[in-house]
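Tutorial, part two.
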Amino acid sequence: MLGKPAEFIKADIAFHNKIASISGNPIFAAVSDAMLTWLFTYHTDLLIWSGREKRDPRRAFEKSSTALRAALLPTPKTQCAHT
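Running the prediction step on this input gives:
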């Protein structure tokens, strides 16, 4: 399974969804499933770890910060017309 990233990621998502369901909170389980499915569908490249990544905390911080800003900051398409 380690040589098949898509299969590994699907198994990992199932594992994390099981953990979320153990909480007994259906909202937490649903949000977890939605988030993980969205991540797999649209950002699979972020989920594949090859083992060749450099251990560079500064670069990791910069890349994750850039990705979070892009995901969280409104774009012209998502901004409300009343602002």
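The chain is about 65% helix and 0% strand. In part three we will examine how such features are distributed along the chain.
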